[in-house]
Structures are given as structure tokens and as C-alpha cells.
Design brief:
eight-stranded parallel β-sheet, about 210 residues, 10 helices, alpha/beta
């Protein structure tokens, strides 16, 4: 397998943005793999698990699956091939935006400012409007999702997103594993790229706490 480091991952990702062709950068957390097991204490509902697996099995070369280093040995040993994580695949550094936000703010800011802020986008998010606009600008569309019950609302969330078809280039994921579950249906049906920001916005709230009202 090929496991790209931070620098290789951000170079490939920005190259995809530059080309203006449809792509997807999506995080695959180890917790999501564990939750696919019916024996897990926190397993996904069946319909949600099916959506996650559908995304994992996407073999399009423009789908960039970003995995944590803790998954590398399991993938190399063939433990997850049945859900689409093959040992001969190419994998990206997980949570690349989190990494650069915390370790090289100049690269983070230049990437967001040049490639995202001036590109029509919609954000699926657990956060409020203020923090979204702080990162992505005032013209970004927002789909707010309640953190507590999104498993059961995946279809309605997708329906809201589909209303932006033809009006945005990017769907930015700020919604944890929900982004992974949505990716396959977006890829198959909508003409927009998906970019998973992981927990970057949550980290920014910790780094720069919001003032108390």
C-alpha cells in the first residue's frame, strides 16, 4: 500500500483543487471501522453502516481516502478488504487540515484563502454560523446538523445538500463520520467535490475560545 505523508497529501489535494475536476478527500477514522462491527458497543444503525461501507468501497482514483496511521497495519494484513480498504490502495494522511492548523498555520491559511474562500461552497456542520464564516467567509452556505440524532436524518441532510446542485463547487464536511456516510451518494449523484475538515473547527474553538456572552 501507499501511505502519503502530510506534505504529499496536501500537495495532491491542492493539485486536485487547481484542476477544477470533481474529487473527494474524506477521513476514515478507526472509530468508524470499529462501529461497523455488530459486536461493537456503539455500532452504527444498519442503514448508516451501509452508507459508510458504500463510501469505503468507492475505487475512483479521485476519491482520496485519508486514514489514521493506526489503520495501516490492519489494512496491510488484509483485515478490512471486505469493506473496501485494500492493501494495494493509496491512502492519504488523515485530518490534514487539523494537522496544518495546529502545526503550520501559514499553510492552512494559504490553502483555505486561495482555494476555498473564493470558491462557491456549502458546509455541513455541527457548528454555528459565526465560526463557519470565520474560516470560510461570509458567502458560504451552511447546513446545520444536530449532533445528537444525525444517524436518522442522513436522507433529509442529503436532500438539503442536493438543493445546492449547480450552485457550489465544494461540499465541506465539518460533521465527523456523517461526512463519510454521505460521500458515496454525493459522488454518485451530485456535481460537487467533498472536502473533509475533520475536527479543525472544533480545535479552533479550543485554541481561540469564543467570548462568553
Amino acid at each position: 500500500m501507499t501511505f502519503l505523508n502530510q506534505a504529499q497529501s496536501i500537495i495532491n489535494l491542492t493539485s486536485a483543487m487547481e484542476k477544477k475536476k470533481k474529487f473527494s478527500y474524506i477521513n476514515v477514522p478507526k472509530s468508524a471501522i470499529i462501529a461497523l462491527s455488530k459486536n461493537s458497543d456503539n455500532s452504527f444503525p444498519s442503514h448508516f453502516a451501509k452508507s459508510v461501507v458504500s463510501s469505503l468501497k468507492n475505487t475512483d482514483p479521485n476519491v482520496m481516502k485519508a486514514i489514521s496511521h493506526s489503520l495501516v497495519s490492519d489494512i496491510e494484513d488484509g483485515k478490512h478488504y471486505k469493506i473496501g480498504l485494500h492493501k494495494n490502495g493509496e491512502y492519504y494522511y488523515s485530518n490534514i487540515f487539523e494537522y496544518y492548523y495546529m502545526n503550520n498555520k501559514e499553510i492552512y491559511n494559504s490553502t483555505v484563502n486561495y482555494y476555498i474562500k473564493n470558491t462557491p461552497s456549502v458546509v455541513i456542520t455541527f457548528h454555528d454560523k459565526k465560526i463557519i464564516q470565520k474560516h470560510f467567509g461570509n458567502n458560504t452556505h451552511i447546513i446545520n446538523v444536530a449532533y445528537t440524532n444525525y444517524y436518522e436524518k442522513i436522507d433529509s441532510i442529503y436532500a438539503q445538500l442536493a438543493e445546492f446542485e449547480g450552485g457550489v463547487d465544494y461540499c465541506i464536511m465539518d460533521c465527523g463520520v456523517l461526512g463519510l456516510a454521505l460521500m458515496s451518494k454525493i459522488w454518485e449523484n451530485l456535481n460537487m467535490s467533498t472536502i473533509d475538515f475533520g475536527k479543525t473547527l472544533s480545535l479552533s474553538k479550543v485554541t481561540y475560545p469564543q467570548p462568553v456572552a
